[in-house]
Design goal:
31% of the residues lie in helices and 20% in strands. It is of the alpha+beta class and 407 residues long. Among the domains are: 70 residues, Muramoyl-pentapeptide Carboxypeptidase, domain 1, CATH 1.10.101.10; 162 residues, L,D-transpeptidase catalytic domain-like (Beta Barrel), CATH 2.40.440.10; 43 residues, no CATH class. It has an eight-stranded mixed β-barrel. Strands 7-9-8 form a three-stranded antiparallel beta sheet. Strand 10 and strand 11 form a beta hairpin. Helix 3 runs antiparallel to helix 7. The longest helix is centred in the N-terminal third of the chain and has 17 residues. The protein starts with 17 loop residues before the first helix and ends in a 9-residue tail after the last strand. The N terminus is likely disordered.
Length: 407
């Protein structure tokens, strides 16, 4: 991302050029206490007339303004699609609060599921009815099939496996006080109001708290996939950029911080650590060895990486640690984003290049030979942070504030 510094008129600093001195000299002619030569009087009247006429011409008029500046007026600038959706959700939750809110679900069981009868089930129905997730008039203490269907929907909207079983983790989410949910909606509404309007064409959006990458064509969701994001101590940086190329069978230049804090201690504990993990040492810099991991099955970047050059050195990549994708919370990386289905993304990004068939992509990913492939065009990438949003089905979703940015 490049930042352009724009000069500010009147902030040029102490240096004054000849034009500045000349303007200062001319300005003295109009000082109230200056003695004005008679030959200038006619010019003064002309200048005053033009100034007054200019003010009149510049007075507001009721006409359509199609200038670029007019597009930035409140209500006319493009807004992110989530803005009106979250505004509606916020109004609904405020209305729920005005109607009395909801009561926390208190129970003694470790989990609740279909065919169980328990007083806590009645509270569960009341809670889901208050948020609009359970529309039945049933107030019994029986965990019915209809309630199971409602629980599965709620699980999806909170990012849980959709098994219809209410466990302690789901109860914790359902028992979050309404005032906190309203504050969460307010925080995310403020966040999306600062987001740019989505770009047309192919774009990639990674939502950190959701642990997902979404692939869009305009406003249409094509597919999404699970991701692993930066840990709480190595947070993924939030920014927008453009993907320009990918690398099959990548090598990994290990960042100095990882060399110092992780690899060197392991080297001291095992003399063959570098060899066993396919690392090579290539000199040193600043007293820290420069270490590169060669392409291969055990490479930390997996079989492919997707690059959108940026100062944070953040990119998408494959990973040999596939088991992490089975977890609900997936904040484990050093900051980069690991993909559950990297080959699927590579095939999609190269779909219009007849040379790169799925078979050739698979071969390149497993060749062990590093190969860069430029994309046919730049693909916008957004690394976002939303703990509340409305999905394409119109359902309100919530996620845990993994980086603590809502408060």
């Amino acid at each position: 991302m490049k930042t352009t510094n724009v000069p500010i008129p009147g902030a040029e600093g102490p240096g004054v050029d000849g034009n500045d001195r000349r303007r200062t000299k001319d300005a003295r002619s109009f000082h109230p206490n200056a003695i004005v030569p008679r030959r200038h009087v006619g010019w003064l009247f002309l200048i005053l007339f033009l100034l007054i006429a200019g003010l009149a011409i510049g007075a507001p008029v009721h006409t359509e303004n199609t200038s670029p500046a007019a597009q930035d007026e409140p209500g006319t600038a493009p807004v992110h699609p989530q803005v009106p959706k979250l505004q509606t959700a916020l109004e609904r939750y405020r209305a729920i609060a005005a109607a009395g809110g909801w009561t926390a679900i208190k129970g003694t069981r470790k989990f609740y599921q279909q065919d169980i009868t328990d007083p806590a089930v009645t509270l569960l129905k009341q809670r889901l009815r208050a948020s609009g997730d359970f529309t039945s008039d049933d107030t019994s203490s029986a965990f019915t099939e209809e309630l199971t269907a409602a629980v599965k929907r709620v699980q999806k909207h909170f990012g849980f496996p959709e098994n219809g079983v209410v466990d302690a983790a789901l109860l914790k989410e359902l028992n979050v006080p309404l005032r906190k949910r309203i504050a969460q909606l307010e925080a995310n509404l403020a966040r999306v109001q600062k987001l740019p309007e989505p770009a047309p064409g192919t774009r990639l959006v990674a939502n950190i708290p959701e642990y997902k990458l979404h692939v869009y064509e305009g406003e249409r969701l094509v597919f999404d996939m699970a991701v692993v994001v930066g840990s709480e101590s190595n947070k993924t940086v939030l920014f927008n950029d453009e993907m320009t190329y990918l690398v099959f069978s990548p090598s990994w230049n290990v960042p100095p911080s990882i060399v110092k804090n992780e690899i060197l201690p392991r080297m001291r504990g095992s003399h063959d650590y570098l060899w066993r993990n396919n690392y090579v040492m290539e000199g040193e810099e600043g007293g820290v060895p420069k270490i590169r991991q060669l392409p291969g099955a055990g490479n930390s970047l997996g079989r492919v990486k997707f690059v959108f050059p940026n100062e944070n050195n953040i990119y998408f990549h494959d990973t040999p640690a596939k088991s992490l994708f089975t977890l609900r919370k997936r904040a484990f990386s050093h900051g980069c984003i690991r993909l559950a289905e990297p080959q699927k993304l590579a095939e999609y990004l190269l779909r219009n290049n007849p040379e790169w068939t799925p078979a050739k992509i698979k071969t390149a990913m497993n060749s062990g030979r590093e190969q860069r492939v430029d994309l046919p065009g730049k693909v916008p990438v957004s690394l976002t942070y939303l703990t509340a949003w409305v999905d394409d089905d119109g359902a309100l979703n919530f996620r845990e504030d993994v980086y603590g940015l809502d408060s």
